[in-house]
TrEMBL record:
SUPFAM superfamilies per UniProt: AhpD-like
InterPro entries the record matches: AhpD-like
Lineage, highest ranks first: Bacteria, Bacillati, Actinomycetota, Actinomycetes, Pseudonocardiales
Protein name, per record: Carboxymuconolactone decarboxylase family protein
Natural source organism: Pseudonocardia acidicola
Length: 205
């Protein structure tokens, strides 16, 4: 599935050097171990690890600032593996965030997860092209509508709040709003630090 953005970045343009395991201090190593042996390490497709042991995507940045990165990875792991949102609804929301922020790496990583969860190609393509995705499932429809409004306006109207609360409990709505903010933050980091998908993924566009 192609990315919603054109990227001209490669390993030479990334602003943060890739940290190898032998370069890490104790605090960085604790974050590295949490990323590679925790919930993400136990779930297929959680983290990409290079041949030299360095981490791809947003995770290398977490090692550079372990005091913040350690907490940030815990939030991400909670959203991915301990949340109450259904997996398909969660990934539709993440793809909407990635497309909105034109984050090539975020799109690349989560399009793979969406495919694994069986999300229909037409839904993914609608998000990629900026069309309106129309899920059949009522929860997915509500999540898509709420996410689009959060991205467009930074808020939910009373009517939108009532619509999403009709199908999601309070915990799920809190999780959804947190998810939109979290993946928006990662999209910002990925842009600033010039992190792009691997060359093979870019070649498939």
């Amino acid at each position: 599935m192609s990315s919603p953005v054109e990227v001209a970045m490669d390993a030479e343009t990334q602003r943060l050097p890739a940290l190898r395991p032998e370069q890490l201090d104790a605090e960085q190593r604790a974050v590295y171990d949490a990323l590679t042996t925790g919930a993400r390490g136990r779930n297929a497709g959680g983290i990409e690890i290079a041949a030299d042991g360095s981490l791809a995507g947003p995770f290398n940045a977490m090692l550079h600032a372990p005091q913040v990165g350690g907490v940030l990875q815990q939030v991400g792991a909670a959203l991915r593996y301990s949340g109450v949102l259904p997996g398909r609804a969660r990934e539709l929301a993440v793809l909407l965030v990635a497309a909105h922020h034109r984050s090539a790496y975020e799109w690349y990583a989560h399009a793979v997860i969406a495919d694994r969860l069986g999300i229909e190609a037409e839904l993914v393509d609608a998000i990629r092209t900026g069309a309106e995705p129309r899920p059949v499932d009522s929860v997915e429809r509500a999540v898509v509508a709420a996410t689009r409004e959060l991205l467009d306006t930074g808020d939910l109207t009373d009517a939108s709040w009532a619509a999403v609360r009709a199908v999601l409990d309070e915990a799920a709505v809190v999780e959804l709003v947190t998810l939109v903010g979290y993946y928006g933050l990662l999209a910002l980091q990925l842009r600033v630090f010039r992190v792009s998908p691997p060359p093979a993924a870019r070649a498939r566009k």
